[in-house]
Design a protein that fits this description.
Helices cover 49% and strands 16% of the residues. It contains 14 helices and 11 strands. The strands form 2 sheets. Strands 6-5-7-4-8-9-10-11 form an 8-stranded mixed β-sheet, covered by helices on one side.
Length: 384
């Protein structure tokens, strides 16, 4: 891309000249009113100065033959104007330095225009037809656009390297890499494991804890205990107590951080202990301190962050950032049955860069919880 300046009496005349000489693909970068230098222009009206970017390959062929003549005429005109200016005896050396500065500015502007043109092309996302369709499906399944296009660009690159492999196969593989291998809770014999469960209010945290407790107690035959630190919601306490009575699992309610060590000692015979926590609004400093105290005393081997698949990405980000002080955790996705879109799981995995563990698919205890099937998720996202 090159840059050229024009002077004209009005903007319409300037545009007509640009189109006539450089073609309709030329781009006007800047325009302003200026007063031409030189004594003979002293009492004349200001003219429009237009800076235009153009591609030499797009100049109309009839004008290419006159390019040298126009350049020579412009140079003569500039020299004549310089001679007529009062006290403007300009040496060849000064003209050469001026030409070098103009060339440097032109080169800089040309580089800028080239970068701008790249960004413009990038925004259009000119993918092959089959890949474009897959991008559309991802976005329809609530995958974030920036993530969808990032995966698509990598897919396009790999398609060039592996021309015999289809776009869908490559894209599915990349999504599986992003989702990662699921990491459910594993328990070793003759050890005690404390699992801390975090999450905002309304995400289904307490019900999810009951499902996990029932699975470990009934299906895996482990000695399970429950600790409830969410003393703000009476309903949560009653729900936990009801299921604890049904399953024959001891439940301890902790009101103060000082009680945690004593409670843990009282449950020393338990193989697995699940700890329920309160969910508070983002930015609640007291909530942060409470969670940090629980972690400091109980030293949980596993921490699960519950997030709902029905939650929008902006809220997901806010919730994840709220628990940013927790160093290590796995993701437990709830309410997967309440939405047909699976893009939320990919978004959450991408934003947190944390492993997925479980997904809940209904209210039935303990049946409606499963280890996340990442292959099924990836295929669902790409389905029509």
């Amino acid at each position: 891309m090159l840059v050229k300046r024009y002077h004209a009496n009005d903007m319409q005349q300037a545009m007509d000249t640009v189109i006539r000489e450089l073609g309709s693909d030329a781009v006007i970068l800047n325009s302003r009113k200026v007063r031409l230098k030189g004594l003979k222009n002293l009492f004349k009206k200001p003219v429009f100065e237009v800076m235009v970017a153009y591609d030499p390959a797009n100049i109309p062929s009839a004008r290419k033959k006159n390019a040298a003549r126009d350049a020579a005429a412009a140079e003569r005109s500039q020299k004549d104007a310089a001679k007529e200016a009062p006290g403007a005896a300009v040496s060849n050396e000064q003209l050469e330095r001026l030409d070098q500065r103009i060339d440097s500015i032109d080169e800089m502007l040309g580089s800028f225009i080239e970068k701008f043109s790249f960004v413009k092309r990038d925004i259009t996302y000119d993918y092959p037809e089959d890949l474009q369709e897959l991008v559309r499906r991802m976005i329809e399944n609530q995958v974030r656009e920036e993530l969808a296009h990032s995966l698509a660009k990598e897919t396009e690159l790999l398609m060039r390297r592996q021309p015999d492999t289809g776009a869908a196969e490559i894209l599915e593989h990349l999504m599986l890499e992003q989702l990662g291998r699921p990491e459910p809770i594993l328990h070793k014999k003759f050890t005690q494991k404390v699992i801390l469960v975090l999450g905002p209010t309304g995400v289904g945290k307490t019900t999810t804890i009951v499902k996990l407790a029932a699975d470990f107690s009934v299906n895996q035959k482990k000695k399970v205990g429950l600790i409830n630190t969410d003393t703000y919601r009476i309903g949560a306490q009653e729900q936990l107590q009801t299921y604890a009575d049904i399953l024959g699992i001891p439940l301890h309610v902790v009101y103060q951080a000082e009680e945690l060590a004593e409670t843990l000692e009282a449950m020393s015979d338990r193989d697995v202990i699940f700890v329920d926590t309160a969910g508070k609004r983002p930015g609640d400093e007291q909530h942060r301190e409470d969670i940090m105290n629980i972690i400091r005393v109980l030293k949980p081997e596993d921490t699960m962050l519950c997030l709902a698949a029905t939650t929008g990405f902006a809220s997901i980000k806010e919730m994840v950032d709220t628990y940013g002080f927790v160093d290590d955790y796995r993701l437990l996705i709830t309410k997967l049955d309440e939405t047909k879109y699976r893009g939320a799981l990919l978004n959450i995995s991408w934003y947190t860069q944390k492993p997925l563990a479980y997904a809940t698919t209904g209210q039935n205890v303990p049946d409606d919880i499963e280890v996340v099937d990442v292959t099924s998720i990836a295929k669902d996202i790409l389905s029509a």
